[in-house]
Structures are given as structure tokens and as C-alpha cells.
Amino acid sequence: MLFRKSKNLVGLDIGSSAIKLVELKDVKGGGYRLVKSGLETLSPEAIVDGAIMDASLVVDTVNRLVSTANVRNQDFGTSLSGHSVIVKKISLPAMSPEELSESIRWEAEQYVPFDINDVNLDYVVLESGAGDTMDVLLVAVKKDKIGDYTSVISQAGRNPMLVDVDAFALQNAFEANYPIEAGRIVALVNVGASVTNVNILAGSNTIFWRDISFGGNQYTDAIQKQLSLSFDQAESLKKGERAGDHSVSEIFPILRSVSDDLAQELQKTFDFFLATTSTQRIDQLLLSGGSSRVVNFDTQLKERFGMPVEVMNPFRQIDISGTPVSAEWITENAPSLAVAVGLAVRHVGDEAA
């Protein structure tokens, strides 16, 4: 090989309840080795509905995470989701790459509900249709949102090299760890604190995306209200720890009720997907995100949807033998680290989409 591949980015997933970090190294002959990983919880008021409310608190948390994990790599990638991110598959007349480059901005204006001057646009041609049309994946992200997140990385003294979308970072983590079967329909569902990302794949092609404004915070809120607890006490119970006189068994009915609400949201999303595409089924559901570990959540989804449901292991095919953190820590936190892993498989100079 004449040219060495450019170096890996550090994946930094800035979530509303925690910041997660993963650094991988390419292994000769293919695959990856885990170099650094870490997770720091974030005060709930620091990021609200995806908007950074207290930048200095977020920067301090990033600095603590980088210092604890002893990260030397300066080049970071991060990702976004929620209201400021628009992902749409659009059908256009077949045209050359040059023509598409010139016309995409005008085409995007019809689909993006923001002023086109306020967004960064990216796109990728998915497939050419029946001769005279082509399907294009269009991604628009508000510039101020990108600026808020890249500024955090810059203030932490690192270089923000790439901004991706959570749902696509999740897909990268899946493809790095699981066999891709042509025609198999897999729904990737990442349950974060405030947003649940859904990315449905046919083989290695993404065919449907949606962000649902529902996540782990709903569990915490319900526990707080019904048991008159503080946020921290409710979080402890949700994670399976005792909180004062309250035991975990007390919250099982509360968790089940909120899980039913989330399953209902997923049902609506899947129904819409099946109604608006030529696909007749979903073969498997893979869960990730911190709240994917809520007691019996995967079982409830299995019962409701009648399909295989499992929690994704984003380190399934990654060599973790030389990492300084314990295998137990990785097992416990793996579902929360899926987006960070998907960012860490990227390289300096990669395109965002």
C-alpha cells in the first residue's frame, strides 16, 4: 500500500445526560482495536432538547473525560440529532454529479423547513431509479447547532474534524460489528435521554430515518412524580440501585408503563415506514443507548412486535483486550457507546454523510 490511511478520529457523543468517548485504531488486515473509552454524566440542565444551555459545564465535562481517558489524539468527530437535523430521501430527475451539485441547493429549499442560508447541506446519491430518476439522501443541519457543538470541542482544545448525524453513526457501529445480509430489514433504535433515533436498513442501505422526541428522561420523570423523589434518586432506581427506602422492585410497574408508551411511538413509526415504502416487514430490532437497558424493555418489544429484539454490542467485532478499562465496564456501558463507536470508525478527511 503506497498511502497510509488517514488516522482515526476520536468519537465524542455529546448527549443530554452523558458525554461518551471512544477512540479506535485500525488493525492490519481489517477491523479495529479499542484504544480509549470513557463516559461522564452531565447535569440535566446543561443540554435541553439538544440545545447546549451551559457551554462551560459541557466543556468542563469533555475536559474531564479527555483527561481521565488520557486521550492524546487531537482530532474529534461528533454527531447531532433532533429538531435541527432534517434527513430526507428525495427523488430527482437523473443528472450528472456536476448538475446535481449546482441544483441541490434549490431542490433542498422545497424540503427544508428552515432558511436555506441557515443550514449546512450534504447529500449522497442512493441509487438511480428507472432511467430518468435518481434517489438522493439529503441532510440539512442548522449552522448554529453545528457551531455550538464544534465550539465545545474547540474550547476543550481539540480539533472538530467531522459532524455526523446520530442515526448514521449508529449505522457505522452496526456495520463494523454485524454481518450485512442483502435484503434483510433491520431497525436500529437508539434510546437516548431525550431523543430516540430510528434508522431502518435493507442490507447496508438506509431506507428510513426518524428521530422521536421520547427517551430515558420519561422514565426518570415518571419515577420522580409517582414516588416523590429527586432527579438523582429516580436515576439511581432506574439504573437498578436502591434509593433511600425505595427498592428497584417498586418501579417495575412504572417502567413497564413508560416502556409501553415508547413502544407505542415505535409502533407509529414502523406503521408509517411500512405504509410509505414497498417493504412488507422488519426482520430484527437492535437496541442501543443508555435506556435500552431498562428492565424488560427488550422483552416488551419482542412481545409487541413479534420479532427478534436484542441489545446491540458495538464492540462485538472490536479487539478490547488491550484497553485500560475493565471488560465489565465495557459490557455495562456498551449500549451507551454505540454512537461514539460509529464516530470512531471514521477518519480525518472523511465526508460527513
Summarize the structure.
The protein has helices spanning 55-69, 97-109, 143-155, 166-177, 216-227, 231-238, 252-276, 297-305, 327-333, 338-344, and strands at residues 10-14, 18-26, 32-41, 47-48, 51-52, 75-80, 85-93, 119-128, 133-142, 159-165, 185-191, 196-202, 205-212, 284-288, 309-311, 318-319. With 353 residues, it is α/β, with parallel strands linked by helices.
Rg is 20 Å
Say what oligomer this is. Answer: single chain
CATH homology group of the largest domain: ATPase, nucleotide binding domain
Q: What is the element string, with H for helices and E for strands? A: EEEEEHEEHEEHEHEEEHHHEHEEHH
The order of strands across the largest sheet is 10-6-1-2-3-16
Uncertain runs:
none
Strand content: 25-35%
| Straight-line distance between termini | 26 Å
In round numbers, the mean pLDDT is 92
**Form type:** globular
The major sheet is characterized as: 6 strands, mixed
The count of strands amounts to 16
* Structure class: alpha/beta
CATH domain fold name of the largest domain:
Nucleotidyltransferase, domain 5
The total number of structural domains is 3
Proportion of residues in helical segments: 25-40%
CATH architecture of the largest domain: 2-Layer Sandwich
**What's the CATH C level of the largest domain?**
Alpha Beta
Which helices and strands appear, and what pairs or packs with what?
Layout: E1 10-14, E2 18-26, E3 32-41, E4 47-48, E5 51-52, H1 55-69, E6 75-80, E7 85-93, H2 97-109, E8 119-128, E9 133-142, H3 143-155, E10 159-165, H4 166-177, E11 185-191, E12 196-202, E13 205-212, H5 216-227, H6 231-238, H7 252-276, E14 284-288, H8 297-305, E15 309-311, E16 318-319, H9 327-333, H10 338-344
Parallel strand pairs: 1-6, 3-16, 6-10, 11-14, 14-15
Antiparallel strand pairs: 1-2, 2-3, 4-5, 7-9, 8-9, 11-12, 12-13
